[in-house]
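Lab manual, section 2.4: Encoding a predicted structure.

Procedure: take the sequence of the chain (351 residues), apply the prediction step described in section 2.3, and record the output as structure tokens. A sample record is shown.
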Amino acid sequence: MNGKYVCILYANGMDAREMRLSIPHPGHFEALKEIVAVKESEGLSEVKEVFMGGSPDIMGSGRGVFHAPLISEIKEQTEFAHEHGLKMNIVMNSTCLSGNHLTHEGFKMFEWYFKQLNDAGVDAVTVAEPYLVELLRDFPMEVVVSCLAYVDSPHRAKFYEELGADVITADTNINKNFDLLRGIVEAVDCKVRVIVNEACLFKCPFRYAHYNVASHFSSLNKPKGTPIALDFYFDKCISFRLRDPSQLIKSAWIRPEDIRHYEEIGIHEFKLSGRTKTVAWILKCMRAYAKRSFKGNLLDILDCPQMLRYVFHIENEKLEGCIEQWKRCKKICDECGYCNKIAENIIIRKY
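Recorded output:
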């Protein structure tokens, strides 16, 4: 087993099988203070980490950055997080760097920025680019592979572990494929993480192109010219689900109540999506997953796209037991039809 992994896992006497939640952080200090206040006042010991975006001067990321903290702010917030038992993770998961990282200037820039993050006390850095995974091996920070590296098999997971990964976030498309998830857990010594509340289309045809666009437009070096269809992919994504609500059921989300099924196959790292959302919404999701319970419209705690909660209602409690079907499902939807039946029975269209 990776020595660095053992050190991180047991340094503070942490139970290797304890549920660990990673919480989205918009980036400004007040948001972090609110997250900490709720964690402590409500005894949410499962909350172990917060993550926020890095500097768009260096690179873009898979999401927009509404507040880009300077290194001095990152240092201040990291110290505050540590005082309250939280790790700090900086997300730099652009899926396209235009090849800049492979130039001498690019290499020196990333090496400099990673050193700045390390000196600021940052615990982990999340990246999607394999070159950066390997570059981060030279730093003591935890190397987290983003879901945007699309790790969807044991074979691919082993490649990333060999590059230097300490944590691998599985491709969300396999969130309900337990055979593949179990295979990844058994194939690697590093930790395996899943995102619990992402509601993107299952096997979305736009996913790769959409994240490439987001990576460029979240950088300060944006493409030139006026976009004629800046969110073409998002609009198409919404239209698919408006026409076919069963796509909402087929998405990769994991109910708070179903966390235990993932723990049973050796997954104890869970990440909430939504660092561009309001703090109030983030706290609502944090409570639901930390307490493993939620009553109401499941869409209220799902990221991407939130606005569908105004159109559809999916009573979370009525999904109890569905995971048993998904655990053995072959994911050949035309032959199965299970999600279509669930959608017909429990999704309520509000208008």
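Check your result against the sample. Residues 3-349 form a domain with the TIM Barrel fold (CATH 3.20.20.70).
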